[in-house]
Design the sequence.
């Protein structure tokens, strides 16, 4: 099993305890995600320290304020690191509006170009910005492997699949009120399916009172397997195959 683990101030990057717990749960690969320059370097340091860990390098839309040529140059440099497996998270977030939309757009466009130039997949964050996110990807991301991280727009599933994007489900797919999202998890073709934690948030329902961690991706995977009417081992093989193809590990 694999996991995408978001590195935020409230959640440490992979450490001995988290990596050990993940291994005990059968999680063999962890993609830890940088949000800005400092957290990207921390993610790469964790990837250097643990053979199970790889890094996604980018500028999150909530950290896109003031994005300029220097910020782009930093991403381009860090993306050359051999343990960088993806670009992002990038995209648009109109729910928080922590960064001006013009800066979010500039960072988004630039990171699409970095993904194309490096041949690495692009990890997308979108919140309350579905139309603009989809329109931007359609216009600019042709030929780029796009991962819709923490998928949360089931009404747009067919559009995303028609575009050839990968759909990644986080712990919120397990929530009782998320029936439309759970139904979407049944419809994604095997070859476009991923699961993740998005730690430290969106902890799966069975451990919802706890802070999320990479090991808990197994709970999400079991839920998705049940909804799809397949065994956990089958879903595990599907996800591992897709992640290996995308991230090159």
Sequence:
């Amino acid at each position: 099993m694999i996991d995408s683990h978001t590195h935020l101030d409230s959640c440490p990057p992979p450490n001995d305890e988290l990596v050990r717990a993940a291994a005990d749960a059968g999680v063999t690969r962890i993609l830890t995600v940088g949000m800005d320059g400092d957290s990207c370097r921390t993610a790469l340091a964790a990837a250097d320290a643990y053979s199970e860990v790889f890094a996604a390098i980018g500028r999150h839309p909530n950290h896109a304020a003031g994005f300029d040529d220097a910020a782009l140059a930093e991403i381009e440099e860090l993306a050359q690191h051999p343990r960088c497996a993806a670009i992002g998270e990038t995209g648009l977030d109109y729910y928080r509006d922590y960064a001006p939309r013009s800066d979010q757009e500039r960072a988004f466009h630039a990171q699409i170009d970095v993904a194309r130039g490096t041949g690495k997949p692009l990890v997308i964050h979108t919140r309350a910005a579905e139309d603009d996110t989809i329109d931007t990807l359609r216009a600019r991301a042709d030929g780029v492997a796009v991962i819709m991280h923490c998928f949360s727009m089931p009404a747009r599933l067919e559009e995303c699949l028609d575009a050839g994007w990968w759909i990644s489900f986080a712990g919120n797919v397990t929530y009782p009120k998320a029936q439309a999202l759970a139904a979407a998890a049944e419809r994604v073709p095997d070859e476009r399916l991923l699961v993740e934690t998005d730690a430290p948030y969106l902890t799966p329902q069975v451990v919802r009172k706890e802070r999320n961690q990479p090991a808990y991706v197994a709970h999400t995977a079991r839920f998705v397997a049940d909804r799809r009417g397949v065994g956990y081992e089958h879903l595990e093989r599907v996800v591992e195959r897709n992640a290996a193809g995308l991230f090159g590990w």
